[in-house]
Amino acid sequence: MPVPDALPRTERLRLRPWTTRRDDLARLTDLYGRPEVTRWLGGGPSVTPVELVQRWQQIGVADPRLGVWAIETGSPSRIAGTVLLKPLPGGIGEVEVAWHLHPDSWGCGYATEAAHAVIDRAFSGGVPEVYAVVRPGNTASVAVCRRLGMQPLGLLRRWYDVELETHRLIAPVVVD
Description:
alpha+beta, single chain, three-stranded antiparallel sheet
C-alpha cells in the first residue's frame, strides 16, 4: 500500500491536521456546536473537542492514506471546516469521504475542493473506491457528491444503522 508523501493541498486550501491549540479547539467547538451543521451528522460529537482531535489523529496512524484535516483558507488563514477520509464502521476496508463546513464558509466550493484533494490522495495511495453517505434532504452535500463525479447508489442502511443516500467513486484505472 503506497503512502502519499504530503498533506493534501489545493490552489486555495491548505489541509492540515486539527490540533489541540486553543484557536483550533474554539473553531471546532463553534463548528460542531451549530445545529445547522450537526442536524446532518445525527447530532454533535459525544466527546470533548480534545478527545475528538485525538481520535482523529489515530485514523492516520492506523492507515496513513486516511485522516481528518482542518480546511484552511486565505491569508490570514481561517478554518472553514473539516474534511474526513476514514474507514466506514463495520466495513471491510471501505473508506468514507465527508465534509463538515462552518456556515460562514458555505457556498464557496471548499467542500468539493477539499474532498477532491483527499480522494486523489487516497487513490494515489491505492484505495480502490470511496463512499459518501448523506442524510436524506441534505441537497448541498448531494450536490458535492455530484460535482465529485460520484455514482448515487440509493438509500442504504449499511454502516450507520440509518438509511443514508450513498454515493461511490471508483479509482480510475491507470494504464502504463
